[in-house]
TrEMBL record:
Gene3D superfamilies: P-loop containing nucleotide triphosphate hydrolases
UniProt similarity note: Belongs to the ABC transporter superfamily.
Organism: Rhodopseudomonas pseudopalustris
Function: Involved in beta-(1-->2)glucan export. Transmembrane domains (TMD) form a pore in the inner membrane and the ATP-binding domain (NBD) is responsible for energy generation.
Matches recorded under PROSITE patterns: ABC_TRANSPORTER_1 (PS00211), ABC_TRANSPORTER_2 (PS50893)
SUPFAM superfamilies: P-loop containing nucleoside triphosphate hydrolases
Cross-referenced Pfam families: ABC_tran
TM segment ranges: none
Keywords attached to this entry: ATP-binding, Nucleotide-binding, Transport
PANTHER family: ABC TRANSPORTER ATP-BINDING PROTEIN ALBC-RELATED
Protein name: Cu-processing system ATP-binding protein
MF GO annotations: ATP binding; ATP hydrolysis activity
Length: 300
C-alpha cells in the first residue's frame, strides 16, 4: 500500500538549533499513528513540514504524493489539522466559524452541521465563541479539522480540555476516519491514552527518531521484561517457577524476557491446580518511551 506521508532524511535547523536530524518514516492509509516526545523533541516541526508551513533544509517530505510546501499543492484541502492551542474569532458564533472553514476547504457549510453535533456543540452552535470554555473551543477545533473527511489528519495534543465522555467520542470519530482509509497522526503527551489505540508509534528525542514500530515490535526491540504475577492456593512444595522458593508465598512475580518464555511459564502455571489467577503485564508505552530515550542518550 502506498504511503500517504513520506519523510526521508529530513534536516531542519532554526539558527543554531537543530530541530530535526535525519528523520525518515512513512505513514500509511488506514492507520492511527502516535508521535511522542518531550517538548523540543521536534514533533511540532515535523507537523509544520507535513502541512507545508515550512521547508526542510535537507531531505524530502511528500504528502499524498506531493510536496506540501509547493505552491500548487493540490492535496491541501484533503488535510485536517488541529493545533495544540486553537484560536478563533471570539465575535463569531460556532456555526459561523465552521462555515468560514468550510468555505476555505470548498465544502458546503451545511455539511458542517452534523460535525458540530458529533463533537457535542449543536446546542452552543449559535453562541459566540468568546463565551466558550477551553474544552468547547477544542471541540470546535476538532470539528474544523474533520471538515471534508480528510485523507490525512494531523492532531497536536487533541484531547486537551476534553472530558472523559468527549474523549471517548473523539477516538470513536478517529476510528471511523481510519476505517475509511484516512491516515491519522496524533502528537501527544497522553501516552496512556495512545497505548491501546496507536497502530504505529514514532518516538522523537532531540530532533532524532529514537524508535518506531508497532507496540509489539517496540517491545521486541527493547527486550524489556514481561511481568507475570501468579496467585496460588496455600500448601504443598513451592513450584519450580516460584521466584522465592517459599511455600508460604502465595503470590509469585516472575520476569521473563520474551514471548516464548512467557508462554512456557503460562503453560506450567496453568497445569498447576493450585493456581487461582495469572496476571500478565507487558511493557507500557511509558516504559518503552523511557527506554528508547535512555538508550539514545547512552549512545550519544
Amino acid at each position: 500500500m502506498t504511503a500517504s506521508v513520506k519523510v526521508a532524511g529530513v534536516e531542519k535547523s532554526f539558527r543554531s538549533v537543530r530541530a530535526l536530524r535525519g528523520v525518515s518514516f512513512e505513514l500509511r492509509p488506514g492507520r492511527l499513528n502516535a508521535l511522542v516526545g518531550h517538548n523540543g523533541a521536534g514533533k511540532t516541526t515535523l507537523i509544520k513540514l507535513m502541512l507545508g508551513l515550512i521547508r526542510a533544509d535537507r531531505g524530502a517530505v511528500a504528502v499524498l504524493g506531493e510536496d506540501p510546501a509547493a505552491g500548487e499543492f493540490s492535496g491541501r484541502r484533503q488535510l485536517g489539522y488541529l493545533p495544540e492551542n486553537v484560536a478563533f474569532n471570539a465575535a463569531l458564533t460556532g456555526r459561523e466559524t465552521l462555515a468560514f472553514y468550510a468555505r476555505l476547504k470548498q465544502v458546503k457549510p451545511a455539511s458542517a452541521w452534523p460535525v458540530l453535533d458529533r463533537v457535542g456543540l449543536s446546542a452552543a452552535a449559535d453562541r459566540r465563541v468568546g463565551t466558550y470554555s477551553k474544552g468547547m473551543r477544542q471541540r470546535l477545533g476538532l470539528a474544523q479539522a474533520l471538515l471534508g473527511r480528510p485523507k490525512v489528519l494531523l492532531l497536536d495534543e487533541p484531547t486537551t480540555g476534553l472530558d472523559p465522555a468527549l474523549r471517548q467520542t473523539f477516538y470513536e470519530i478517529l476510528d471511523e476516519l481510519r476505517d475509511d482509509g484516512a491516515t491519522v497522526l496524533i502528537s501527544s503527551h497522553a501516552l496512556n491514552e495512545l497505548e491501546d489505540r496507536a497502530e504505529h508509534v514514532l518516538i522523537m528525542n532531540r530532533g532524532l527518531l529514537a524508535a518506531q514500530g508497532t507496540m509489539e515490535e517496540l517491545r521486541e526491540i527493547s527486550q524489556l521484561p514481561i511481568r507475570v504475577a501468579i496467585l496460588r492456593e496455600p500448601g504443598g512444595a513451592p513450584p519450580a517457577w516460584a521466584t522465592g522458593g517459599d511455600a508460604a508465598a502465595l503470590r509469585d512475580v516472575v520476569l521473563v524476557e520474551s514471548n516464548a518464555s512467557k508462554m512456557h511459564l503460562l503453560r506450567l502455571a496453568a497445569a498447576d491446580p493450585r493456581v487461582r489467577d495469572i496476571e500478565v503485564t507487558a511493557p507500557t508505552l511509558d516504559d518503552l518511551y523511557a527506554h528508547f530515550l535512555q538508550r539514545q542518550e547512552d549512545a550519544a
